[in-house]
Design goal:
three-stranded antiparallel β-sheet, TnsA endonuclease N-terminal domain-containing protein, Arc Repressor Mutant, subunit A, 36% helix, alpha+beta, single chain, Trna Endonuclease, Chain: A, domain 1
Length: 216
């Protein structure tokens, strides 16, 4: 639906240039700004989001008799079909007439509108760190080992079980790095849930089947 608006790293208006690889889109993504990058970590690891685009569109309109432009930071499409345009700003900059212009555009064009700040994105630094670890690990291979996923799904139940216990139950049939990678894939795809929002990922991290996986 959208293509990223090109940006130049040399543009002096921006700082903190980030590049990542999206397994959802199977392409590189890039961002100017820490908040935009950190929000992408959340989007990329949210299994309910099927599609996204960074810097999707610039809109313009008349405010106080002057024509103004504003750019959305992210377009999201969820698996249920809901489409959202996101503006990312530090909380000190959120009070602007441009927000009304963005909201009006979304209302007229059938998008949900979200304006978020560092208070939203950084409210759980543990989860943010874990998301980055998952993406970094999975991007080393970019495709899961299917036999590992099937073996792990046989070991994970609806009861919370530590990664350490799962490894012991499997009796070294898969190496520790591959076990970790397979579990990360299952978390990433939404097949299993974990307590990654509560504690830093380790052998004590607990995982369990989510309701949809149990029904399949």
């Amino acid at each position: 639906m959208f293509k990223p608006i090109p940006i130049k790293r040399s543009d002096q208006f921006y700082s903190n240039y980030w590049v990542g690889y999206s397994l959802k889109l199977m392409r590189e993504v890039d961002f100017f700004g820490d908040l935009q990058y950190e929000y992408w970590l959340q989007v990329e690891t949210d299994p309910d989001i099927s599609e996204f685009c960074e810097r999707p569109i610039i809109i313009d309109g008349v405010l106080e008799g002057k024509r103004k432009k504003t750019q959305f930071d992210m377009y999201l499409k969820k698996r249920d079909g809901k489409k959202t345009l996101v503006k990312i700003l530090y909380s000190s900059k959120q009070d602007s007439p441009l927000r009304a212009l963005e909201k009006l555009y979304c209302e007229k064009n059938g998008f949900e509108y979200i304006c978020i700040s560092e208070l939203d994105i950084r409210q759980n630094p543990i989860a943010l760190s874990n998301r980055k670890q998952i993406i970094t690990t999975l991007c080393n291979r970019k495709q899961p080992i299917d036999i590992d996923l099937r073996k792990l799904l046989h070991e994970v139940t609806s009861k919370r079980t530590s990664i350490k216990q799962i490894i012991e139950n499997m009796n070294a049939s898969i190496s520790l790095p591959r076990t970790k990678e397979a579990l990360f894939w299952l978390i990433y795809k939404g097949d299993i849930s974990s307590n990654m929002y509560e504690k830093k990922i380790s052998l004590e991290t607990e995982v369990w089947l989510n309701d949809q996986t149990k029904d399949n």
